[in-house]
Amino acid sequence: QERVEESGGGSVQPGGSLRLSCTASGSINAAAWFRQAPGKEREWVLCISRRGFIPKSPDSVKGRFTIFRDNAKNAVNLQMKFLKPEDTATYYCAATGDAANMCPTDRTGYNYWGKGTLVTISS
After folding, report:
1. Partners of residue 52 on adjacent β-strands
2. Could you report the per-residue pLDDT of 44-94, keeping only the tens digit for each?
3. Which of 2, 69, 76, 116 is the most exposed place for a label (fewest CB within 10 A)?
């Protein structure tokens, strides 16, 4: 059973940037970031396969968020730029030992989850 842990959350002003980091206790294949705002369902943000495949990003983060990984460190990071108040949410890292060549965009595709890190965008 792998463990994943997020870090890097915090509070920034609109237009600012943050980098979230996710570290797994062992080797993982597909990894993703999801987020959940208060009163809303958890939504997919971005994902990346072990071999670096990244599907088309949702419109809500397109051009602003980037996902990248370091397999040697079992790490997957989310770089967020031009942050908006609507990006405020708890961000979760998810991973799976399956799916080396692709990454699921649905939460059911992941069996390892972190506890989340809070990101607040406010002036």
Report:
1. none
2. 999 999 999 999 999 999 999 999 999 999 999 999 999 999 999 999 999
3. 2
